[in-house]
Write a structure and sequence with these properties.
By secondary structure, this protein is mainly beta. The chain has helices at about 1-20, 70-75; strands at about 45-50, 95-100, 115-120, 125, 130, 135-140, 145-150, 160-165, 170-175, 180-185, 190-200, 205, 210-215, 220-230, 230-240, 245-250. It has a 5-stranded mixed beta sheet with strand order 5-11-10-7-8, with no helix packed on it. The protein has a 4-stranded antiparallel beta sheet with strand order 12-2-14-15, with no helix packed on it. It is globular. Bound molecules: copper (II) ion (CU). Copper (II) ion binds near residues 122, 187 and 191. Copper (II) ion (CU) binds near residues 122, 147, 185, 187 and 191.
């Protein structure tokens, strides 16, 4: 350790001794891919709330009896279904909100930090999530039972992989944009999740408050799209001027 510090200090001294110019510029033989530059001084924000109005769909608690008694034992009461989660004020949770148009010519640096999904209480956690194209997608099993993770994409490659209790994490990658990929467990019929694969960083999932925020956007025209597993998607076009902060509500109104 001591020796390394000494070497670093030494090379720093040499750089300083050379003086002037920018010595780092000449040390990049491989030019990095040109990613879209977003000027923080003019970046814009779109935020708002996802609401549901209309006839509420029927929801049922998840019935975990029958297929795996271990699963039922992990819940004190009936497990709560996550396919329609609405607040008293009409806000809708588990909605995937993303930019669906307006970034076609932009390229973004790949993400190497994994996105993680867990299986806990015989449910996928989270129920809805987003990953970037090419981002490591990790699935873990926190349960004392065997699961079988089975994404069912249309554009990406389908796979399914068993994951017994204590098994190592599963790591995969989705290579194509796709909204949304249903994920099921081949062992437990009620287990369902949805993964959105996006080629840019502007996506989020609503929580209990139904609110969302997409920030750091270059000024421009965009389509904001809200996806929910039970209803037709809701879209809205917005024009964001430099440094703008615009608020929109997206309301699901199924007939
Ligand atoms: Cu399972």
């Amino acid at each position: 350790m001591r020796r390394r510090k000494f070497v670093l200090a030494g090379s720093g001294a040499i750089l300083a001794a050379c003086g002037g110019g920018s010595p780092t510029e000449s040390k990049k033989p491989d030019a990095p891919r040109a990613y879209t530059k977003i000027d923080p001084a003019t970046a814009a924000t779109i935020n708002g709330k996802v609401l549901f109005s209309g006839k509420k769909p029927t929801t049922r608690p998840i019935d975990m009896s029958g297929e795996d008694s271990e699963c039922k034992r992990m819940h004190s009461g009936a497990a709560v279904a996550e396919d329609f989660v609405q607040n008293a004020d009409g806000a809708l949770a588990n909605v995937f909100v993303y930019i669906s148009a307006g970034l076609e010519n932009a390229t973004f640096e790949p993400v190497t930090t994994p996105a993680q999904m867990d299986q806990k209480g015989c449910m996928f956690k989270p129920h809805v999530m987003g990953v970037r194209v090419g981002q490591p997608f990790i699935v873990t099993n926190s349960d004392p039972v065997t699961h079988n993770v089975h994404p069912m994409p249309e554009k990406n490659r389908e796979w399914n992989q068993g994951q017994p209790a204590g098994a190592p994490k599963i790591e995969r990658v989705f290579t194509e944009p796709e909204i949304m990929i249903p994920v099921k467990c081949n062992v437990h019929s009620w287990m369902k999740a949805y993964v959105g694969v996006v080629p840019h960083p502007f996506f989020t999932v609503t929580g209990g408050t139904g609110t969302f925020e997409l920030k750091g956007l270059p000024p421009g025209e965009y389509t904001i799209r809200a996806w929910h597993e039970r209803f037709p998607a809701v879209e809205q076009k917005v024009t964001l001027s430099a440094s703008a902060s615009q608020t929109i509500d997206l309301t699901f109104k199924p007939a």
